[in-house]
Amino acid sequence: MARRRGRVEEPGRRSGSSEVWEWTKSIGITIVLLIVLRTFFVQTFVITSGSMEDTLLVGDFLVVNRLAMGARLPGSTLRTPSYSDPRRWDVLVFDPAHEDRMKLVKRVVGMPGDTLEMRDKQLWVNGEPQEEPWVRWDDPTGDDFHPMMLWQRDHLLQRGAAADYQPTRDNWGPLVVPPENYFMLGDNRDFSLDSRYWGLIERWRIEGRALFFYFSYDRDSRTPLRFLREARWDRIGKRIR
Q1: Is beta strand 104-110 parallel, antiparallel or unpaired with respect to 91-94?
Q2: Checking phi first, is residue 26 left (phi over 0); if not, alpha (psi -120 to 50) or beta?
């Protein structure tokens, strides 16, 4: 009886199609893991404006903890389980209501139930003046009424004062923060569009807490290869407070 001769692969060797499949599978698993990691655990964020100076500088690259307060499921208001809630003075990344395709980073100054007021640039919380060593003031002028701030009338402590209420950048309130809402301010107080103008932030809009810098460089420098030559090495790994 004649034997059929077949191709016998050498031990330890794989066919070309098998190797392609293994590579494809490995790449696919890696991509899925990266998507899951970014969606539910950590997020990266790049600072492109000076509204949080000097805490955050233009050209800072941040790592944001999304797991702490629960990650929002894409396309919904549902969140994964969390082990922490926003705290006063946290630096948070969030999805503002006034801009669908933008993420912002500001500092929490008002918690649900708080009464907030600003008198001549001094922030008051629940009737007490606050020490804010991180705040920067650069502009002694420009404290004019802004129409965007009229949303505050609906949250005044004394509702009867709404008709005559004319809030300005440096003088506003007292306001009461409703449940499940937060009041956010930029540290560069005179040059920040924040809750004073576009309103409160709902809890479900918060993306995560800023943790530390993983890179930083001077984006405004005209030096060639500024990404390396103008790197701020002393900020890398520094905790954000």
Answers
A1: antiparallel
A2: alpha
Mean pLDDT, the chain cut into blocks of 10 residues (241 residues total): 47 62 64 54 86 96 88 69 88 89 94 97 97 94 88 92 91 96 97 96 92 93 86 95 93
The residues annotated as belonging to the active site are 51, 106
| Contact present, 120 and 114 (Cβ < 8 Å) | no
* Residue given tokens 């050498």 in the structure block: 10
What amino acid occupies position 191? F
Q: Please, what CATH class does the domain formed by 43-75+83-235 belong to?
A: mainly beta
What are the residue ranges spanned by the domains of the chain? Answer: 43-75+83-235
The model's pTM: 0.81
How many other C-beta atoms lie within 10 A of the C-beta of residue 227? Answer: 14
Residue 162 three-state SS: helix
Instruction: List b or e across 10-39, with b for residues whose CB sees 16 or more CB atoms inside 10 angstroms.
Output: eeeeeeeeeeeeeeeeeeeeeeeeeeeeee
Whether 143 and 162 have beta carbons less than 8 Å apart is answered as: no
